[in-house]
Amino acid sequence: MITLEEFKKKQLDKCRLIGLDLGSKRIGVSICDEKQLIATPLKTINRSSSKELINELKNIIEENNIKGIIIGNPLNMDGSSGRSAQSAKDTSNNIEMNINLPVCLWDERLSTVGAFNLSSQLDINVSKREKKIDENAAAFILQGAIDFLNN
Questions:
Q1: Phi and psi of 16, rounded to 5°?
Q2: Which of 1, 63, 76, 2 is nearest to 29 (CA)?
Q3: 50, 94 contact by CB (below 8 A)
Q4: Domain region containing 58
Q5: Which of 96, 113, 116 is closest to 105 using CA atoms?
Q6: CATH code, domain with 56
Q7: Cα–Cα distance measured from residue 114 to residue 67, given in angstroms and rounded to the nearest whole number
Q8: How many domains is the chain built from?
């Protein structure tokens, strides 16, 4: 796994990236445009076997010409790693071993809260917000990473 700084050095041309919010039951997926300006929620994958996850990601990557993967790293509020962060790291390592693209972790503290609050400003009812929260959190994560890459 590489850092976002290393990822930035490897990216010669602008390209589409995928963002993942790894939950215990669902995985939110987002993608960005080729200019890496705007992250867009794509879909939510129900978490089952890691083989099914890899296959689903490979399909999304191929369909959207993705060149890199940003995965939310759920650090504790004090910046330390807990059980969720270790699980994200393990899943990230598995993705990296099975998909030949650069993979990096991005601090996702408060991404779900941020995505929920942002969607509340869009006058969307609560049940629809909750249904889309994982992919919106993935877009929130990816947007933070591409904003960093662009600065």
A1: -80, 140
A2: 63
A3: yes
A4: 4-75+84-150
A5: 96
A6: 3.30.420.140
A7: 26
A8: 1
